[in-house]
Amino acid sequence: MPQSAEHVLDHVELFRGPEYQQMLAKKKIFENPRDPAEVERIKEWTKTAEYREKNFAREALAVNPAKACQPLGAVFASVGFERTLPFVHGSQGCVAYYRSHLSRHFKEPSSCVSSSMTEDAAVFGGLNNMTDGLANSYKMYKPKMIAVSTTCMAEVIGDDLNAFIKTSKEKGSVPADFDVPFAHTPAFVGSHVTGYDNALKGILEHFWDGKAGTAPKLERKPNGAINIIGGFDGYTVGNLREIKRILELMGIQHTVLADNSEVFDTPTDGEFRMYDGGTTLKDAANAIHAKATISMQQWCTEKTLSFAAEHGQDVLSFNYPVGLSATDDFIVALSRISGKEIPEQLARERGRLVDAIADSSAHVHGKKFAIYGDPDLCYGLAAFLLELGAEPTHVLSTNGNKAWQEKMQALLASSPFGQGCQVYPGRDLWHMRSLLFTEPVDFLIGNTYGKYLERDTATPLIRIGFPIFDRHHHHRSPIWGYQGGLNVLVKILDKIFDEIDNKTNILGKTDYSFDIIR
Amino acid sequence: MSLATTNSVAEIRARNKELIEEVLKVYPEKTAKRRAKHLNVHQAGKSDCGVKSNIKSIPGVMTIRGCAYAGSKGVVWGPIKDMVHISHGPVGCGQYSWGSRRNYYVGTTGIDSFVTLQFTSDFQEKDIVFGGDKKLDKILDEIQELFPLNNGITIQSECPVGLIGDDIEAVSRAKSKEYGGKTIVPVRCEGFRGVSQSLGHHIANDAVRDWIFGHIEAEGKPKFEPTPYDVAIIGDYNIGGDAWSSRILLEEMGLRVIAQWSGDGSLAELEATPKAKLNILHCYRSMNYISRHMEEKFGIPWCEYNFFGPSKIADSLRRIAGYFDDEIKEGAERVIEKYQPLVDAVIAKYRPRLEGKTVMLYVGGLRPRHVIGAYEDLGMDVIGTGYEFGHNDDYQRTAQHYVKDSTLIYDDVNGYEFERFVEKLQPDLVGSGIKEKYVFQKMSVPFRQMHSWDYSGPYHGYDGFAIFARDMDMAVNSPIWKRTKAPWKEAPSAKLQAAE
């Protein structure tokens, strides 16, 4: 018997002993298993160029896509406002999924409600669900704002949020002047980054453009402030805090829009804070007067930035700035737009990042990397690798489009280290599997699901992205700013050194290289 | 010692009733009336728990429930390892349910096993406008080409499929014919159907009936010689290896397990199940339908069992053995005896650390009742429980066999109610899901996920009980719960002392 009270074995070890192994071997006869030789043959075949060609010829099937659907991004953006309850109109299972997904990544509560539409709503529309739902949410959870988005069910049947919210207010679900911004977020268009954009634009439109016809439109009186938008970001906690620190160092008047850095990082002290932090509704409204709106992620904010530009603001977007040059560009832009000087403190932080790169770049230089993730994240990481002298080789974004591809290609063309790199918009992780077999690289950068690629292709995975379910707390540290760049560098170096150690640790065989100093 | 155990049964009953009244005050009148039917205090001797169940969730309340797709793809079909399960519709559903349920299996993933792959038709706007059938047709071809060792395919419908009038049954039939009778199963588990995951279980069971059992030839032979001791494990999803730590006991008592439904299961096992002499049913809620069907159609008896905690395991082994001859009955006694030293050692180690601690549960299919015995084996006291998607027959079983007098019962509880109940009752442990975990930990209440075993497990069987005991101890007795208040802040409140 393998189990004992003194040394309790769980799933990691329990099944490895002879009792369970014999049991599992005996189970095989009931499974009608494939011939092991055939399994081996197909396994090897999936590694070939021939398989890759068939794999890339896929037109309909997606296997292991690296993207989620719009409402997830809408929920993520909505909780970044003061006491705001995201309300997703449609089937209720979706909301259970978004909440679970966000909680698994952040290891934090994730509050969101559904209008719980079922068959009858599919036939008659979901107006009653909206009316009852708003009334219940308002009374139970005492929000300051309810931000409505939609699941694909409500979109397919064509529910009209604007009309439904208006009717619900007339029926007294919430007070007439209670803020209920909305955004249509069909899951069959775009991805979670699109949903982020739609929801944020919906909220700004609500405050700036007369609250769906119930208030006068705000008149813009330009001031010197800058709005910052983080975009959909698994590192939102660390990153937004770092950006705010930089803005404060520079003395720039600012508003971070959709600031969810507090709600996804509340303390454990005996109190559950369903709402915490967030952009105040007053600040959201006053953001119209800002001189400029800066987006840290272009493809998360295309509509939102156009909207800000239409209101007369200067707009500027980055592509998930990571590392030295991208942070330089960001800091210089902040200084240019605000007219503020860049403080010596930031120059020192920059110098420290340069110092660290100079100390360590020999270990990164020339290493080949595959990267996948959201379009902006891929761009930012590729740019950083180029300046480390590393060679991005495959860059894949399931939710990247043609414009993204072109921009990526221009970036790669600008560096001698980017010459051997291919860009793959709209592809998935099963495509990546073929790439890693046919054109191997030294390291893979991606989210938790990359561990399947690491297992299959033996490409070491550096976990950067969303979601990260199987490592804890990394979202609390920034990867933006010079300090964030240092964190990314350390993540990459740690994996590189671990790999060298793993390859050199066999006693008496390879351990001549098992160096104590690297 | 928590507040909850310091009173008499009558006092607890009165307090729980009062608590329910207090919670209902938050609602608009109409909602309060509806929710009142789902909350109650169990009265000893009653045949059920006195709550309504399996009724639509109320909009806007933050129900914890999921949908029919989650019940079919996520629970019943997803673990069948040698079939490809397509999440048919937009990308999200498959993405959020990808690999998160911990249905363990042995196989070469991507080659002959597919559980932890995310296959989706990733619907775009044009698929909604023009329909998804042509795309589905092509997807099936692409699966055949790229994953040639798959033994079958299921199509798990997401919401839009049923709204746009796609005929996935016709596509399935045509493609099955094209591929020489290949098993292709269309499942109408659109998320808007029914009130919870529960209808998805039922729809998935019916799909097995119609598209697996309906297609095996009457003369179809299992590829093994039947014995009088062949049983099938029904309703065990092998979370963290649960079905394995169950199977080993059944085989040690002399039975032969010919199929696992559905954790680490295969199409061949589903097809062979009509040859079983007895179906043993763990998750009654999700698989009673197919068990009843096999009883009617193939004359296979079924019996429920419970492999959580030594008391219930011993009862169950004896109950299962009761369907067989003396050899098996002796086998059951032999197994119970064999594991008794392990049970004694686990209880000797952990019971003193857990004795008298109170627990509140809120889980899915069988666990709101099934795990109560395991807690009691450790001296713990379940003071509140409820089902996410239970029906009245679940509450009957709970009332008749599991809960104590005056236990607080909450059906389809929502975020608000659950927080208030826990805040007032201050249990020493809450067992629920990922959406609840961090809420209660913030409140300094120890917590274990009772869907995923909090990434531990198995919890079934004797081997699993040792892990269960270890895990409950590490949650309840983690030193961190005594350090959640900053020392310079006010003295700990009564609720914090309770949590200690």
UniProtKB/TrEMBL annotation, chain B:
Q: Which reaction does it catalyse?
A: N2 + 8 reduced [2Fe-2S]-[ferredoxin] + 16 ATP + 16 H2O = H2 + 8 oxidized [2Fe-2S]-[ferredoxin] + 2 NH4(+) + 16 ADP + 16 phosphate + 6 H(+)
Q: Which domain of life is it from?
A: Bacteria
Classification via InterPro entries: Nase/OxRdtase_comp1 (IPR000510), Nase_comp1_asu (IPR010143), Nase_comp1_CS (IPR000318), Nase_Mo-Fe_asu (IPR005972)
Question: Mind listing the GO molecular function terms for this protein?
Answer: ATP binding; iron-sulfur cluster binding; metal ion binding; nitrogenase activity
Q: Where is the Nitrogenase/oxidoreductase component domain?
A: 67-476
Q: Give the cofactors, semicolon-separated.
A: [8Fe-7S] cluster; [7Fe-Mo-9S-C-homocitryl] cluster
Pfam families per the UniProt record, alphabetical: Oxidored_nitro (PF00148)
GO cellular component annotations, sorted alphabetically?
molybdenum-iron nitrogenase complex
The EC designation for this entry is: 1.18.6.1
Q: Does the keyword Iron apply?
A: yes
Give the signal peptide as a residue range, or say none if absent.
none
The top EC class is: oxidoreductase
Job description of the protein? This molybdenum-iron protein is part of the nitrogenase complex that catalyzes the key enzymatic reactions in nitrogen fixation.
Q: What is stated as this protein's family in its record?
A: Belongs to the NifD/NifK/NifE/NifN family.
Please state what the protein is called: Nitrogenase protein alpha chain
